[in-house]
């Protein structure tokens, strides 16, 4: 049993060498409880890492531990308490979601009665309660992804590994999937590791982000640390047409960097007292101050800064 506060995943100098490519290269990282995004371009080593964590692929060198269990010697025990949603679709088309998830629950060791209850619960949680008896072959891509997610959590795992869960989804279905992932991690208390090559979706879902490229660790940090403030704010004012330009010019006259940004003003804040100046300028001009919003770095910017962009 891992100690309280221990990482759910630890790797030390983890290396996987294929005949012509090194998929993981001396990767050392601790993944805390919560929702963690593993981000990297295609071929960065994300799927290989998941296979190692499930005990399905032996590392060439180094080690990996999941819930304080060694993946080389405790693969079966790890898979008993970890859920897995694969990237690729391998769902049987001629059975219903209810039948498939029930089967997976029983394979995971749940008695039939408990498995039926859990199946009904998770299919409701993923939004398939009304469609659960239809054959999977007639499902949309988004519905099939929900089935894959349901089978990954039906046995109430302590950790779930989601490999590119938003692949092939339209924007609305992607948003729905990200909301489900957030609920699993924050409402159900199940730690989540989710891989993606889309940085923006991890920014809104993950508590922590691990950035890898060519099998190497580029950065691992809390999302809030990565997306720290830029020292710039957007100011929105209420007034007649051209009010934003008047405010921007007044700030420039007072030695504060300001530039138009649509119908708002982008203001550089090098000193907290500059915020008082913004407020005073708006008041002096007889305008209303609607909003002052901090601008944060995006994960895309962080990724490019660490040299991981392609």
From TrEMBL:
Coiled coil ranges: none
InterPro entries: AAA+_ATPase, ABC_transporter-like_ATP-bd, P-loop_NTPase
Domain ABC transporter: 9-239
Gene3D superfamilies: P-loop containing nucleotide triphosphate hydrolases
Swiss-Prot/TrEMBL keywords: ATP-binding, Nucleotide-binding, Transport
Protein family: Belongs to the ABC transporter superfamily.
Stated name of the protein: ABC-2 type transport system ATP-binding protein
Phylogenetic lineage: Bacteria, Bacillati, Actinomycetota, Actinomycetes, Micrococcales
